Amino acid sequence: MTSLQIGDLPNFFDRYILLSPDNIQLLEALDMSSPKKLFADVEKYKAIGDGIYAPNKWTLKDIVQHCIDTERIMSYRALCFARNDDTVLPSFDENVYAKNTNLENRTIESLLTEFEILRRSTIDLFGNMDITMLLRKGTANMTRISPLALGFVIAGHAKHHESIIRERYFSLA
Fold it and tell me: Which residue in 32, 69, 70, 150 has a CA-CA distance of 20 to 30 Å to 94?
């Protein structure tokens, strides 16, 4: 299924969904935005290290951890809705999550490995959903959204942060 089959795009999340081409299938969008493809310049990331482009901004490790956390949360939401769980799911505060990590004991390589394993799992999750499951809707963050839309959010979210890294961090290396 493609993003055109989502219907009305959910507010806020549309910015991520729109980063995938209209005609691309969900599993292809997830594969094209995989960490091994988007975040492949590990040597550049290592050269940047814990550098930040402005005060109070996240490091590259913070950004990758944020992508991992967000993908896990969006995948959980998609699983709940696909299984017809009508529990209203809360939002999450990305800054609270970012402050409560163990990144001083992690390398960029270990984070990217974790992210790649997670993406494979995410692709398997969505690959085993049928059309009915992909189009069911649930409520998260006070927004009605389908697993199909959440899949494209996951793909676009990674692309969004890869763009930020290229635009704002690469000059630090």
Answer: 32
Are 126 and 78 in contact by the 8 Å Cβ rule? The answer is yes
In a domain, 4, yes or no: no
Q: Domain range for residue 155? A: 12-51+59-172
Q: What CATH number did the domain enclosing 131 receive?
A: 1.20.120.450
Please report which confidence band the pLDDT of residue 134 belongs to, taking 50, 70 and 90 as the band edges.
very high
Residue 62: name the closest of 113, 116, 112, 103 by CA: 103
Q: Which two tokens stand for residue 57?
A: 């901004």
Q: How far is CA 76 from CA 61, 85, 90, in A?
A: 23, 11, 12
pLDDT of residue 117: 98
Measured CA to CA, the distance from residue 72 to residue 117 in angstroms comes to 11
Helix (H, G, I), strand (E, B) or coil at 74: helix
Q: Tally the C-alpha atoms within 13 A of residue 92's C-alpha that lie toward its C-beta.
A: 15
* C-alpha–C-alpha distance, residues 17 and 153, integer Å: 5
**Total tally of structural domains belonging to the chain:** 1
